[in-house]
Amino acid sequence: xxxxxxxxxxxxxxxxxxxxxxxxxxxxxxxxxxxxxxxxxxxxxxxxxxxxxxxxxxxxxxxxxxxxxxxxxxxxxxxxxxxxxxxxxxxxxxxxxxxxxxxxxxxxxxxxxxxxxxxxxxxxxxxxxxxxxxxxxxxxxxxxxxxxxxxxxxxxxxxxxxxxxxxxxxxxxxxxxxxxxxxxxxxxxxxxxxxxxxxxxxxxxxxxxxxxxxxxxxxxxxxxxxxxxxxxxxxxxxxxxxxxxxxxxxxxxxxxxxxxxxxxxxxxxxxxxxxxxxxxxxxxxxxxxxxxxxxxxxxxxxxxxxxxxxxxxxxxxxxxxxxxxxxxxxxxxxxxxxxxxxxxxxxxxxxxxxxxxxxxxxxxxxxxxxxxxxxxxxxxxxxxxxxxxxxxxxxxxxxxxxxxxxxxxxxxxxxxxxxxxxxxxxxxxxxxxxxxxxxxxxxxxxxxxxxxxxxxxxxxxxxxxxxxxxxxxxxxxxxxxxxxxxxxxxxxxxxxxxxxxxxxxxxxxxxxxxxxxxxxxxxxxxxxxxxxxxxxxxxxxxxxxxxxxxxxxxxxxxxxxxxxxxxxxxxxxxxxxxxxxxxxxxxxxxxxxxxxxxxxxxxx
Length: 604
Hints:
Layout: H1 4-37, H2 46-67, H3 70-95, H4 107-114, H5 123-149, H6 156-173, H7 191-198, H8 200-207, H9 221-227, E1 245-251, H10 271-275, E2 279-285, H11 293-302, H12 315-318, H13 327-333, E3 337-341, H14 351-358, E4 362-364, E5 375-376, E6 379-380, H15 382-394, E7 402-407, H16 434-458, E8 464-470, H17 478-485, H18 494-499, E9 502-509, E10 520-522, H19 523-534, H20 540-549, E11 554-555, E12 560-561, E13 567-568, H21 577-592, H22 599-602
Parallel strand pairs: 1-7, 1-8, 2-10, 3-4, 3-7
Antiparallel strand pairs: 2-9, 5-6, 8-9, 11-12, 12-13
Helix pairs in contact: 1-2, 1-3, 2-3, 2-6, 3-5, 7-8, 9-21, 11-19, 15-16
């Protein structure tokens, strides 16, 4: 047995080790977090390191106070920090932005498609796993003794000290704006970069400041009245029909990589669509890349832009919480039946809750399909999707105009199905980019399926206009994207960077289209052309947007284009800044105006 002197010596050594682990663990956990994210942890400035360490310490010290055992808490917090960094690495790779606070409201959507993505292990993650295992081995001999010591009444002061330290961290971290004093800054235009320089945890915490949209500087309802003075409702183009059926298809991940002129493909994946007579083919700019479908829906249906909303926010879950003016509500007021159809999960992006608020009479999902379903790499094919559109037309009341908004799913990522044979290849480098070739094969099937839809409506007497556009570009191999764009991302100028957010659109009708359409636009303006070519008068807000797009043909979260085709960053101050700030005030009144909202401007 040990004598009293030996016991006291051991206790002093234990207290020293406890102090070391209590103080150093928050810093080493931050190092591991940044490392698994793929950033250089030594690049963090010391104040930023302290800010992230405080965030970790809040959790770690409170956990120690609760559990009463330092060793398992140390192991657990390192595993959690490494996992957080790795999770941000995966999400950033798949969609271009890391995890953001509002993503947790979309966990159901993420779960519904997670099975089609394949996780990968970076060398940093491999090293982190080794280090975590070494930590477990190092602390293992202390586990049994620590269990006895720290749960006795003699250890109560230590647990209380941990509790006090954790509460002190909480007081320092509230409100989150305090972290700016330590150099932690958000960057809504480059969240991935902000996580590298500001730390994955501290910047995530600071992003909670954007859960509510701030009122624009100088905003007032009266100022909005002044901005909209004299603006007339959107006037329709002269068409030969009245109230045609309107079909708007947002095609998942539909992109036009051929338009950049840098690829040699075994066959074109847009040849049929480009060959259509009485049609308009162009390109539209989106606010998202690789993911974020519901943001594109929101822009198209409402005319609002993500440029004035927090980076990565999810409007359907954050802002469409009550009746919201949209293309559907406008057409419903014009006597149209309004139907939304998506051959995926009903609750994805909470569409089942958002669509009724946007004015849709009915929403059909994959479980409601009336036609046979064929699959492409695990998702309902565009062929089956378009056959369902035809079914809806054939089963509606004759002469009753229908507005059908369809969000496809065939081209959804990932593009790693091992049993899916690529039929479209790069002739100069076949097989080098299997994900891209799988995607191009899918895009080619979209082109073929669209032929089925057009040929059917060519034979129908009821006037019908069809718009199809892409919601964002797909997330495939970066090497392929560099090849397609003709430039690596770090060498892009603003025009080339905007090109990452460019998708195609096509408008076709079985009656003569009245005029040529735009070569470029953005999703918040695209529905204006659909209304005009359908001969439908829009709202005053639509009229305002029509005037705006004549000066700025495209405006997205990423940037905007002028009439000369020059791209601009929102960080610039130039002759267009005042126009954009005016748009921000009008949109704010529409979404968040409350009692001062000018409903006559936005609502049909």
